[in-house]
């Protein structure tokens, strides 16, 4: 009888320890999963931000050449401008730079900073240009000219990319033909 009772106590103690170890292990696994999930989210955010930054850098290539600057310089200026005005779009930023470049020689008060300031106050680009001394028709014409210049820069980059892809495809084709011969 004593042996049976000792075995029962030992079995109960062993079962209790096993259950405690299992629950501790489960808690540790859940903790590890949540830590891994947070790391994955943080990593995903970093990757997403890097992709967005790379896409912006690529998108600034065409207009950077037209403005005689680098895409990296435009991107960093855009990021600085976004810190002061989080609602600023890339298109409005580019338009402000192009308009300032187009009009700055004839109208020294039309600068990128002045246009961005007007946008930050909630005005449209046309309203901002009018507040800087342009008539409604002049502002409209300036905006159209800027849009054409932006479109031309983007088209130039697209054409250049298309030619580069064609050259790379031709090079690969020649390599395949050289290996197959």
Defining key terms:
181 residues, mainly alpha, 7 helices, 0% strand, elongated
Q: Give me the strand/helix succession.
A: HHHHHHH
SS content category = mainly alpha
Number of helices: 7
**How many β-strands, per DSSP?**
0
From the alpha-carbon coordinates, what is the Rg to the nearest angstrom? 31 Å
What does this molecule look like?
It is a single chain. The protein is mainly α. It has a domain at 66-180. The protein contains seven helices and no strands.
Please write out the topology.
Blueprint: H1 2-59, H2 61-66, H3 71-84, H4 90-103, H5 112-120, H6 125-131, H7 136-180
Helix pairs in contact: 1-3, 4-5, 4-7, 5-6, 6-7
Short description:
This protein has 181 residues and is mainly alpha-helical.
